[in-house]
Amino acid sequence: MRDRLISRSTLTLGVFLITGSLLVGACATDSQEAPQGVLRVAMQPMVQTDPAFISSDSEILFANHVYDYLVDVDPKNNIVPRLATAWEISEDGLTYTFTLAEGVAFHDGTPFTAADVAWTFNRLRDDAIDAPTADLYDNILAVEAEGDLEVVFTLSALNPFFLFDLSDNHALILKAGTEDAATNFNGTGPFKVVNYSPEDRVELMANEDYFIAGQPKLSGVEIIFFNDDEASVDALRSGQIDLVMRMSASLFISLQDESDIVSIDIPTNGFDLIRLRSDRPPGDDPRIIQAMKLATDRQEIFELVQQGYGAEGRDSPIGPLYDEYYNEEYQIPERDVNAARALLADAGYPDGIELELHTPDTGGRPDLAAVLKDQWAEAGISIEIFVEPESIYYGENGWLEVNLGITGWGSRPVPQFYLDVMLECGAKWNESHFCDDEFDELSRIAGSTLNESDRIQAYKAIQELLIQRGPVIIPYYFAQFAGIHEQFQGFELKAFAGRTDFRNVSISSP
Amino acid sequence: MIRVALGAASTSTRRLKIIIAALFQRPSSSVGVIIVILFAFLSIFGPALAPYGPNEQIAADARQSPSIKHWFGTDQLGRDVFSRVILGAREVLSLAGLGTLVAVFFGSFIGMLSGYFGGFLDEVIMRLFDSLLALPAMLLALLLLGTLGPSPGGLLIVISVVYTPIVARVVRSVVLRTKTKAFVDAARLQGESLGNILFREIFPSTLPVLAVEASLRFSYAIFLVSSLGFLGVGVQPPSPDWGLMVKESRAFVTQMPWAMYFPAGAIAVVVIGVNLAADGLRKALQDD
């Protein structure tokens, strides 16, 4: 009887303790794992929402969280798994076989399979949709699904940067057969679209079925659109916004005194370039861009516009962070206003030349335009400046049409991207319409050889060629800035702001 | 006849002298007039007075606080803020002034026709102007600039279009009162031409109201030009437009507040000055 009594009370106590500890445990687990807190990010308004056509930071940031890449690039420019968990490259370097993550589902609940990857990449290289990636993927012979969890890429030529190409900004995996990718946001990504109000904001909520355990840590992300960098920084100061990733050096400096905002700056390979269309007058005469180059004081621009953040430019997209690919052996000619005037006179403009310069109103670009106006005026190059909102400058491909423009190019992990899409003859985003056989051949060698020293030589020759007769002036490589409220942890800014990943960002006091 | 004309001229001169004297009798209006004269002087002789060019960049002097060398300091690109404020006076005042003149010209003309003829023409013009006035001035300006593109010519058109209806309504109201007066009937009975009746008999009576209205419109036009510059849709960089200067230096306000406060102060001072002068003019004309 006594035994039984003791046994019953012990049992009761035991059940109570076990239940209690389970409850406490469950609560503790919840507080560790359940996504919580909303991150409010200021960004420029989106124009394109179809991943195949996105280009601005805001568009890429949005897509990067609604969809997944096959492979991703980490902040140190290493290729890391995302939807592909492993990959093998054939001995001849022409076949890439990817193993895909299991148990991945699209936001509409349908399972993700290798067929979706094949469909996405076939779409991106389909000339019919006229996507800018058609050039990037023109060496893919075939993309085939092998069962549900394996996909095979066959290349027509060697491409040492192929994995980087697969992590291109546009290469977000869509569901096979997606009809309207611009409005049907059915991704596998860490966040689902709750509401998209063009020109206002996009609201995302955590995808609780995300295939990577413990991600995302936030319950939501709100991308709030600002047309004005100053206004977004003011909103950060006043607590209406938690994160700003786009601002000029001066705005960044102005954040240094804010005690509750963590300010971050990292060097990047991104740059602003000034380019003149070379396929029509007056740029079809190479002496005009040469005169502009001779009239430009890059060091002064770097100090005035970037205030010492980043690095001075050398008229080539191969910047100093590309280590062994970057080469300073070939000197940029000294600024020589008289020589610039003489070139203009030779080209038929003895009294100088008048041009319109179009620039987006973001970052330090309007200041860059103002400095150029002053520097070039000394050489007889008179410019009228048109400052436009980014959504207008890039919208409807207006930036590809204007004669003289300033364009910001975000950082990429390898320089070959810029050569392929910006400078090769006929490339989709060849905004200067530059066409040079020698350049194309050097670019082809650099982008295909497996011999690293051959590639280094090709890049060196490309840098010399671009300084001598390239269609662009690159006065600086900019730094990437961000300001984030201190209660957020796990934020790691990427050189291309739109590729910054919020999956590991968490909040300490929501 | 000659004696009569001379007499009329001397009467006008005497009236003008009385009005000017009345303007300077009140401390507030005399301050306003002095401010307006000062800025008008700067806008005419600015290029001779400014120590540096509006876009002259001295990289070594960038972001310097006010000093003997740079009275208002320098901006982020090493431009002298004092020179830019002085040279900006011409930019702002000429655009606002010219725009106001055009609005006053068309507003007076349309207002006189509308008020004098009345009837269907008056109805059509006034309803059209009502619809324009229903839109806030800034919204109308943004709509027009969106179509015309940002340029000084576009701004001029915007100021004219925004303020013509307002001037027209004011002139029309005076004409409605004046056209029933006996001297207008007398002129009509004498068989004077329509032009004579409108511009020699009726128009002079609109002048006091028109002068006050024009000066008020001028101060609003300065605001409009500066606001559009601040929004980035007005005059384009690197023009020393005050509103644009405030916009460009807003990002640097913690680093170099002088680059923002001096052009902002110039806008405030000139608008207050024009308003004080307009108020003084109104009171002087009432006294007269």
Whole-Å distance between the termini of chain B? 26 Å
The 3D shape of chain B can be described as: elongated
The total count of strands of chain A amounts to: 19
Mean pLDDT of chain B: 89
Q: What is the helix tally of chain B?
A: 10
CATH fold-level name of the domain at 268-479 in chain A: Dipeptide-binding Protein, domain 3
* Main sheet record of chain B: none
CATH class label of the domain at 268-479 in chain A: Alpha Beta
Instruction: Kindly report how far apart the N and C termini of chain A lie.
Output: 55 Å
Strand content of chain A: 15-25%
Please provide the ordered H/E string of secondary-structure elements of chain B. Answer: HHHHHHHHHH
- Major sheet summary line of chain A: 9 strands, mixed
Quaternary state reads heterodimer
The coarse overall form of chain A would be globular
Instruction: Tell me the total number of β-strands of chain B.
Output: 0
Task: Describe, in plain words, how this protein is organized in 3D.
The complex is a heterodimer of chains A (510) and B (288). Chain A is an alpha+beta fold and 510 residues long. Chain A has a domain at 268-479: Dipeptide-binding Protein, Domain 3 (Dipeptide-binding Protein, domain 3, Roll). Chain A has 15 helices and 19 strands. In chain A, strands 1, 8, 9, 10, 11, 12, 13, 16 and 17 form a nine-stranded mixed β-sheet that branches. Chain A has a four-stranded antiparallel β-sheet with strand order 4-5-7-6, covered by helices on one side. A two-stranded antiparallel sheet of chain A has the order 2-3. In chain A, strand 8 (191-197) and strand 9 (201-206) form a beta hairpin. Chain A is globular, with a radius of gyration of 26 Å. Mean pLDDT of chain A is 90; it is low at 1-7 and 9-32. In chain B, helix 3 runs parallel beside helix 6 (152-178), helix 3 (81-117) runs parallel beside helix 10 and helix 5 (137-148) packs across helix 6 (152-178). By secondary structure, chain B is mostly helical. The longest helix of chain B has 38 residues, at 194-231. Chain B has a single domain, classed as Orthogonal Bundle (MetI-like fold). The chains are: A alpha+beta (510), B mainly alpha (288).
